[in-house]
Every structure is written in C-alpha cells, then in structure tokens.
Design brief:
With 389 residues, the protein is α+β, with helices and mostly antiparallel strands. Helices cover 47% and strands 14% of the residues. The two termini are 37 Å apart.
C-alpha cells in the first residue's frame, strides 16, 4: 500500500480546503454565530443552507457520478475530502443517513428508475431520509421486528411503530424493514420499503435525547396505504420478501467506513492535543499524557487501517463481517477521546460545551449501528471462526 498522495490528490485537497475555509466562514456569519446542533429544529434549518452550498459547489456527494450531483471522485479523494471537512470543523451532515446509508444500497440493488429519481434529490437535500430500523423491543435483534406490510391491490398497507429514528422529526422520507410474510422464519418474509412520511395514517412524534436535542422521533403506521410506485419510483428496494439481505448491505455501510470516516477522529484527536497544550496544573498529570498519546495513536491507526480497507475494496476484496471490527474501533475510540477531554478540562467540564456535548453523544456509539456486544459475537463467529457459545 502506497501512502503517498499524488499531485492530483494534493490539488484536490487544496481545492477542498480553500472552499471549506471560505464558505464555512460565510455560512457561520449567516447563522449569526455558532450554529445550533443539526439535531434541533433551529440547527436543522441552518444546515439546510449549508447543504445547499455544498450541493451547488458539487461537494455534497463527491464520490457519486456527475449525473447524480457528484464529482466522480475516487475513494481516496473521498477520504481526503472527509479529512478536510472535519479538520475545518464543518458540521455533521444532516443528510448522512440518506447519503451514507441508503444511497450505497440504492447503487447496489436499486433499479435504474430508483437511482435516477432518488439520488439527485437526495444529493440536493430536496428529500431528507431517516432510517426506520429500531422498534420497541427490536433494537440490535433486528429480525424480531413486528411492523407489518400487508400486500394489497396496487401496494401495501403498513401497521406498526419505529423508534429511535435519528432526525426523524425533520425528515421527509423513511427507509426501513417491514414484515410482509408473517408465516416465514425471522429473517425471511421481510421487505425493504421506501416510505414518504406525508402519507395518511403516519404520525411522527419527536422526543428529546439525553443532551437535550429533539431530533429523535417515533413513527407510527396506522393502516397506511403505500403504493407500489410513487414519485421516486418503485417503493420496494430489492426483492419482496428478501429485505434482510438488502438491510445487511445497509448495516455494512453503517458499521463500516461511510458513516464514520477517520477524518472525524483525527480532527478530534488534534483538537484534544491542542486542549492539552492549553491546560496546566494537575490536569497535565503523566497518566493523562500517556492516555493522550495512546488515543492519538489509535486515531492514526484507525486512519491507516481505513486506507488498507480501501486498498482491499479497490482490489475487489470486500470487508464483509470485518466491518464489525471497524464499528468496535471507532465507537470505543470516540468515547476515549471525549472522556480524556473531560479529564483535561477538570471542573470546567461541568459547563455545557462542545466537549461535554460530544462526550454525551459518544456514549451512544457502542449502542447504535448494532450494539458492540452483537459486533463482538459477529467478530468471534464470522471473522475468527469461533463456535457459538
């Protein structure tokens, strides 16, 4: 693996860095100061402006083909853009569930009609997608879900409830699994559906998180008629009754690189290093210095490991179940980086601020995208070949 960037890649980095510095400053000025969290109504509205700026400059989906709004950039260039994006302190994308989770699945198993209708609107943030996976009683054990899709003339009738739907309170569409054949075994008889949230019979009810943000939602389906085809094309993604296989492609993206690229953690590690340089007194104890060095090296190691995964992917060697290892890595690293920051801040950590808010969010990392306990089971059985306990 050659870790040297080419002249073209360095030019790509310079272009991205210059654009981000100029336009982030302009956007923050429009926001009237520090933008609010994208998981609040105010912050979501602010970031819609940011998404429009990204799209107009073709930075919204850099690795997508140009006909869908992208730059046809390589995976290497995508990683470079992600490094620059987080280095500049740009906000977490409010479109990420669509762009990073649904879109790779649409590219892989969608029809041409679905790709032509869904992807350009997603890139332009005209349609905002949330994920409809979890249900009351069905979190990491996704196959136990009970929401149903009953086939009828011209479409489906949906009943049930989804919960923990990130930014569901503000999104326009939902992608999720529904049980379409209750007579089948747990992993069969499931269908992957694309659902507009303005259909009659759908109720979206937002609720607050531990950190006070209000973007999470419960979504209720009460005899909702979903036609076989809508303005965005067919509403079934993949084959009827084989939604589990389609969902596994989505979860692979969620646990793997697309949702949590290393640029995010390298930027956090660098800010942690800057924090260390600015604190003094007992918070600079040797054991904290050692933890800082270890955390920074783990972030760098994650970056190098990601480059190896990209090399394998380009060579036709998909990561498969190894994405569970990736998920374990970034989720535990995120907790360590933020916990260490609070240790360095000492009493000031009690004040609400970016580090304390980041720490609160990092605690959810080992839970969402499949709990780390589940990921350790997958790693033991499918990566290491150990027997089931």
């Amino acid at each position: 693996m050659d870790l040297t960037w080419s002249d073209d890649e360095e030019a790509f980095r310079a272009e991205a860095r210059a654009w981000l510095e100029e336009h982030l400053a302009r956007w923050r000025e429009q926001c009237g100061g520090a933008p609010a969290s994208g998981d609040t109504a105010e912050g979501f509205s602010q970031q819609m402006v940011w998404e429009e700026m990204l799209f107009e400059a073709r930075w919204a989906v850099v690795s997508w083909p140009e006909e869908y709004g992208g730059r046809a950039a390589s995976l290497w260039e995508w990683l470079i853009f992600e490094e620059e994006y987080y280095r500049a302190g740009a906000p977490q994308r409010i479109t990420q569930n669509g762009i990073f989770l649904l879109a790779p699945t649409v590219f892989e198993v969608g029809t041409d009609e679905q790709r032509d209708h869904i992807l350009p609107r997603m890139a332009a943030a005209q349609d905002l997608w949330c994920q409809g996976w979890s249900e009351p009683g069905s979190g990491s054990d996704l196959a136990s879900l009970r929401s149903t899709a009953r086939p009828v003339d011209g479409g489906w009738v949906l009943d049930g409830q989804k919960t923990w739907t990130t930014r569901g309170a503000f999104c326009t569409h939902l992608f999720g699994l529904f049980r379409s054949d209750p007579g089948q075994e747990r992993h069969r008889g499931l269908t992957y559906l694309l659902v507009p949230l303005d259909l009659e019979g759908i109720t979206v009810r937002g609720f607050g998180r531990l950190d006070g943000d209000t973007g999470f939602a419960e979504v209720f389906f009460d005899g909702v008629f979903l036609p076989d085809a809508g303005p965005l094309g067919p509403t079934v993604l993949g084959e009827v009754g084989r939604g589990w296989n389609v969902a596994m492609a989505t979860t692979s993206s969620e646990r793997g690189l697309t949702l949590r690229s290393p640029g995010r953690f390298m930027a956090t590690a660098d800010r942690l290093l800057a924090l260390w340089r600015n604190v003094d007194g007992p918070t600079r104890a040797p054991h904290l210095r050692d933890r800082l060095v270890d955390a920074w090296m783990r972030a760098e190691a994650y970056r190098v490991q990601t480059l190896a995964v990209v090399s394998d992917t380009l060579a036709g060697r998909p990561a498969g179940a190894a994405t569970s290892l990736v998920k374990l890595w970034w989720s535990e690293l995120d907790v360590e980086l933020h916990d260490l920051a609070l240790q360095l801040l000492g009493p000031e950590a009690e004040v609400e601020g970016p580090w304390s808010k980041g720490w609160q969010f990092s605690l959810s990392g080992p839970i969402y995208a499949g709990t780390n306990e589940i990921q350790r089971n997958i790693t033991a059985e499918r990566v290491l070949g150990l027997p089931r306990s």
